[in-house]
Amino acid sequence: EVQLVESGGGLVQPGRSLRLSCAASGFTFDDYAMHWVRQAPGKGLECVSGISWNSGTIGYADSVKGRFTISRDNAKNSLYLQMNSLRAEDTAFYYCAREASYGGEPLFDYWGQGSLVTVSS
Amino acid sequence: DIQMTQSPSSLSASVGDRVTITCRASQSISSYLNWYQHKPGKAPKVLIYAASSLQSGVPSRFSGSGSGTEFTLTISSLQPEDFATYYCQQTYRTLRTFGQGTKVEIK
Prior knowledge:
The structure holds two protein chains of two kinds. Chain A has strands at 3-7, 10-12, 18-25, 33-39, 45-51, 58-60, 68-73, 78-83, 92-102, 105-111, 115-119. By secondary structure, chain A is mainly β. In chain A, the strands form two sheets. In chain A, strands 2, 4, 5, 6, 9, 10 and 11 form a seven-stranded mixed β-sheet that branches. A four-stranded antiparallel β-sheet of chain A has the order 1-3-8-7, with no helix packed on it. Chain A is globular and about 45 Å long. The N and C termini of chain A lie far apart (40 Å). Helix content of chain B is 0%, strand content 48%. The chains are: A mainly beta, B mainly beta. The A-B interface holds A 35, 37, 44-47, 49-50, 52, 57-62, 95, 99, 102-103, 105-111 and B 1, 32, 34, 36, 38, 43-44, 46, 49-50, 53, 55, 85, 87, 89, 91, 93-101.
């Protein structure tokens, strides 16, 4: 059974840092690209960052570029999101998502349960 | 980033109605467009991938069309379980951006 379990969220002051982790199981982790998606209270889904299977291709939303860093450790079946210089507008549930390929077409087929990050003084 | 714009942001409809949601990309994305259904407390579920391919297990009342910059999701006959928020997503670039969502509510 495919499982994605996020951890590391919590309450943090503006300007501080936090590191999210996503533990993957039930599939061959290094066969898949992975992504971080967030949803702020009452808002829609925002893709924050994505990383290819071998970390060779990485992308960031303009809203987090220069502050957040995505990484993965295929030996540990884990995905990470280092979040620096946090702002109130970064408050959201953060989800990791697996990207599968259906006939060569990418889509997000499994999601974690989410980790809440609250940025407040 | 490629910007994805959905319309409308919300709509009210009755069971049995035909519903159409539009998604526009800020640049051409060929057919690299997916549609998701999202209900509170649950993971988003893929309905349509590659603009018009129905995901396995998804009812045939859902259909997608379009290419380039203009895309459409159609629900031919709205069912009670279809009340949810729908998102388009482009997969043309590494950063897979979503539209802002369309909330489908009961009239």
